[in-house]
Amino acid sequence: MNKFVGMFLFLVLVVVDLPIVYSATQPPKATTTQKPTKCRHYELEINNLIFMWVCDAKIRVQLPSSATLENVTALKPINGTADLFSLPRSIYPGKYLVSELTVTGEGEPKVDVLDVSVAMSTKKCPAKAF
Asked: Is 121's pLDDT higher than 70?
């Protein structure tokens, strides 16, 4: 009887390959640098510094009232919001995603990583959360 239970458990663990999703203990690092141009272009680099896939992240781009966000590349806007974005794809461990922000008016963008969905690097990411 124990042989059958052990064999069944082994088959379930081998055949069912569900992603295990963990909450991030250290969110991806997001840094902005201004490019030296006439327009106010900022380069946003999102680095994955943990040994897990960053499957998705919710990112807030805040601006002072005297500035407006004209263009954002390589980030997907979250429906119904003006300042929230998500990743277009997952970020592998040790890799990064570069996005460009174009701002008009005075003031620099403040970028915060609000929420992160990660999975073990040996598993697949679940469906997009944001």
From this structure: yes
Q: What pLDDT score was predicted for residue 79?
A: 95
Q: Strand, coil or helix: what is 43?
A: strand
**Domain residue ranges of the chain, discontinuous segments joined by +:** 19-120
Ranges of H-type helices in the chain:
2-15
Helix (H, G, I), strand (E, B) or coil at 9: helix
Total-model pTM: 0.72
Contacts of 93 (CB under 8 A, 6+ apart): 48, 50, 51, 52, 53, 121
Task: Report, at the CATH architecture level, how domain 19-120 is classified.
Answer: Sandwich (2.60)
Q: How far is CA 66 from CA 20, 50, 81, 104, in A?
A: 43, 36, 19, 9
Tokens of 37: 């141009």
